[in-house]
Amino acid sequence: MDPVRNPFAPGAGQRPPELAGRDREIDAFEIVLERVARGRPERSLVLTGLRGVGKTVMLGELRSMAVRAGWGSGKIEARPDADLRRPLSAALHRAIRDLAVQHPRQERVDEVLGVLKAFALRAAPDGARLRERWQPGIDVPVRNGRADSGDIEIDLVELFTEVAELASEVATGIAILIDEMQDLRPDDVSALCAACHELSQSRMPLVVVGAGLPHLPAVLSASKSYSERLFKYSRIDKLDRKDADFALIAPAEREDAGFAEDALESLYERSGGYPYFVQAYGKAAWDAAPTNPIRAEDVALAAPEAEAELAVGFFGSRYERATPAEREYLRAMAEVAEGADDPVVTSALAQHLGRKPSSLSPARDSLLKKGLVYSAQRGQIAFTVPHFGRYLLAST
Q1: Residue pair 283/255 in contact by the 8 Å Cβ criterion
Q2: How many whole angstroms separate alpha carbon 53 and alpha carbon 385?
Q3: What Gene3D superfamilies does the record point to (predicted)?
Q4: 140 plus 213 within the same structural domain
Q5: Which of 22, 126, 203, 383 has the fewest CB atoms within 10 Å distance of its CB?
């Protein structure tokens, strides 16, 4: 098989050649765009799931849908302990520029940009010298007195209102997409929920689409009790057999190639239906196959290469971030779960290691902050990365 024509593309956040199994989320966002455009109430969206299921890809697809609908849009990636003002300012700057080409009055656009600039400049700590102050790159005069109080909750409500009003003046909307949403600081989560609540009550055309790990709903709920009713939650999971097969078959057919049934069965068994793994094994199988169609023996030959690539780029890069104490904790999780992705009871981990539960808390808390594990429910812990337990047992 010609490697140049290989259609499969494993990569972080990279759109696969066929976005299979995500029709429900795409259709739901299409409805959101239509309802908001008609001034009807609609909730913002939150996508949750493990690493490698395609949350970032979905955010990119939803942003493309918003752009095609004529909306202003901006995307950010939250980072632990990082302030929300800077990345959000840059995202909204992009969104307002999208709207500017539709708005008949540039001076009105500049007014909103002035408010955004005032909001952005509050990212500098009080007392910071001029050379230490971050400049947002917005070339209009600052409009003081709006969205610049320094209280992120007040400022975010006022800023979102200004931007949403600008969108409504051209009969369109604003979409703000936030990846790794669970990494937002508590104050920023609270402010974001409050702003979304305020705008939903007034039916303003602004929606937030967040994506994060499975415990993201608990993070939002801990911030504002009404967040359970504020967002529409959608769990992004692994593909079923039919969709996983389609993700392989459709791109191959466009290159006049195909898969034998036994190859598809083997690929699903090895990938578990996780989209990133489907692409990784599909790419390796294509390169290993001498003739068309790709067969089970080609998959078997290619599997070690795919697994070696995953071990370095997907699993290993995360494992290297862990300290020795954290690695001991991770391996114990894998051993207790016997390599499965199932949640593990924390008391069982302590018993397995012969330690007091309290002595394991620092390692667990650090792994939670690094996004390597999440609390499935009280007293349980699970990997954020599918097949991570299997990798640990095989390689450590």
Answers
A1: no
A2: 9
A3: P-loop containing nucleotide triphosphate hydrolases, Winged helix-like DNA-binding domain superfamily/Winged helix DNA-binding domain
A4: yes
A5: 126
